[in-house]
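BUG: 3D viewer hangs when loading the predicted structure for this chain

Environment: internal workstation, default settings.
Expected: structure renders.
Actual: progress bar stalls at 90%.

Input used:
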Amino acid sequence: MLRKIIELIIAIAIPLLGGFLVSNFTRSAMLQFDTMSKPPLAPPSWLFPVAWTILYIFMGLGSFLMFRKNTKDSARVGGLVFYILQLIVNFSWSIVFFNMEQYLVAFLLLVLLWFLVYKMAQNYRKVSAFAFILTIPYLIWLTFAGYLNLGIALLN
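Structure tokens produced before the viewer hung:
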């Protein structure tokens, strides 16, 4: 039981820690976000860390559920591979968008990220219904983030 709790904590800590490190690396560049021209429906800046914290917890929990499944099913392995790939792209997006100010490239990364999360969700669905459900808010948020990112690319 203790091992399971430790695995859960590690699974949730991985995306949270990655997000925290990237946000610290991009913090000074993030300040410019408030001064940018944004499309309609752009939320206040304080909402982003709240949303991402929740999404990172969901990601970690979903990966834990997939990791703990006692099967060598290719969907389980595929889901975890797509999980790792999407984390890499997710963390890269912030650097490209904020530090490099390459808004169109960041949008293309976001499209790739959406695709990777979709593929991850497809694999999760075959193994764990709850892990799959945890990916739905992420896909919705990425769709909205794509709208914001493209709007910023066009307006700035």
